[in-house]
Amino acid sequence: xxxxxIEDGDYIIVDCMDKNVDSNDIVLVIVDGKATVKRxxxxxxxEQVVLMADSSYSYDPVYLxxxxxxxxxxxxxxxxxxxxxNL
Length: 87
Description:
Blueprint: E1 11-15, E2 26-31, E3 34-43, E4 48-52, E5 62-64, E6 70-80
Antiparallel strand pairs: 1-6, 2-3, 2-6, 3-4, 4-5
């Protein structure tokens, strides 16, 4: 995302056909039936996936294990920033 953070009002472009993701990719993930956009980190030492916020807000990480109900729905491939209102 070229160093840009996802902020409220921004649009993301998701390639829903690309579910082959690597560690540090920003992904659309369904966890317990709810969608979230996070940076995916493969933590092989602890046999888990860590979802980290990649936004201007500070959110706690989400830790997922193989037995958890989650799926990757696609990879974020673009970001359209909300226009700044210069009034």
